[in-house]
Amino acid sequence: MNGYLESIIKSFDIKLYHKNILLWYDAEKRDLPWRKTTDIYKIWISEVMLQQTQVAKVTAYYSAFLKVFPTVKHLAEAHLDDVLKIWEGLGYYARARNLYNAAQFIVKNKKGDIPATFAELLEIPGIGEYTAAAIASIASNEPRAVVDGNVTRVICRLFKIEESTHLAATRREISDTARQILFKDRAGDYNQAVMELGATLCTPQKPKCLLCPVEKQCSAYQNTENPARLPMKQKAKKVPHHDVAVGILWDEGHIFIAKREMGGVLGGMWDFPGFRFEKKDTPQKVLERELKNTYNFDAEAAEFIMEINHAYSHFKMTFHVFHCLYKNGEPPLNAAVDWNWARPAELKFYPFAAANKKIIQKLENEFVHANNRQ
């Protein structure tokens, strides 16, 4: 730890800090469903869902998930497609796959008992240090500091850390500082208090410093004109953009869909055939060529359906969607993990990534209108 930061921490009134932040948390914390339970399974589910996702969005998913999978045994015995379907739209689908795999491990190797200690939690595949620390501190008050984006922001401002958080050395300093200022007597409440402070007052833009319970101890507030400039970030890189030709392949009222491999961001989700292309190609030609190369289908790209712009965390895509007419052919065994021919009304039973939702809705509407005209 650098000398500047070490000197600030030494002069920091940690008792006053603990008193003020916990008094504020006890009085002002949001009424969230996972804060009303001591069930370690429910705490685990909430912590995984909250990673990189806003609280408002998680709240609805949390209740729906627990309604279908109320215990770790229910989750372990489910089909992965059903788990992904409940998770549909929440994003970062590896979280759902990891939850599912971890539940199976717990039922098989722990007799269905989820451990409550940091060390034992780390033995479970799919549970990393952050999740293990959060669960152990909240469920059993184990003194483990939790560092997420909110905590990072609070610590950088409290101690005026001006090095880029993209640097490994800076991240180590933040983690060391979090451990030093942890309130061990109420570790779970303290961790949630700091995260709550970052989420509600010490926000990325326009922090509400005058309402902050620790603003008098905040070095950024006391010594800078603009606390919002911390944490220091790298200069934003240009976000890549990709064009994708998407084929809605029809055969006798059924649409071809394929399941993605388990790796990657969207692993295990179902999808319509889609292929990136350069501007020198037309999406129709790409679809006809790649449906043949990938799935051994002879098909004709016909009517344009829609264009969809969708942003992921590190890139953007424009989907050019076309109806395609199946002529003949059968996919080879290695074409996809699984595939099926489904009616438009059946698509809602499959887990699709969010980018496909507008396509599915349009197909369902067209299917209803066509039936009404008959």
Short synopsis of the structure:
With 374 residues, this protein is of the alpha+beta class.
Task: Describe this entry's structure for a reader.
Helix 3 crosses helix 9 (about 130-140) and helix 9 crosses helix 12 (about 185-200). The mean pLDDT is about 95. The protein has 15 helices and seven strands. The protein has two domains: about 5-230, Endonuclease III, domain 1 (Orthogonal Bundle), CATH 1.10.340; about 240-374, Nucleoside Triphosphate Pyrophosphohydrolase. The chain is an alpha+beta fold and about 375 residues long. Helix content is about 45%, strand content about 15%. The chain has helices at about 5-10, 15-30, 40-50, 55-70, 70-75, 80-85, 95-110, 120, 130-140, 150-160, 170-180, 185-200, 220-225, 285-295, 355-374; strands at about 240-250, 255-260, 270, 275, 300-310, 315-330, 340. Strands 1, 2, 3, 4, 5, 6 and 7 form a seven-stranded mixed beta sheet that branches.
What value does the Rg take, in angstroms? 25 Å
Query: Which architecture name of the largest domain does CATH use?
Result: Orthogonal Bundle
What coarse outline follows from CA principal-axis ratios? elongated
Low-confidence stretches: none
Secondary structure category: alpha+beta
Helix content: 40-55%
Distance between the termini: 74 Å
What name does the CATH topology of the largest domain carry?
Answer: Endonuclease III, domain 1
Distinct helical segment count:
15
How many strands appear in the DSSP assignment?
A: 7
- The tally of structural domains comes to 2
Strand portion: 5-15%
> What is the CATH superfamily of the largest domain?
Hypothetical protein, domain 2
Q: What about the largest sheet?
A: 7 strands, mixed
- Tell me, rounded to a whole number, the average pLDDT: 94
CATH class of the largest domain, named Mainly Alpha
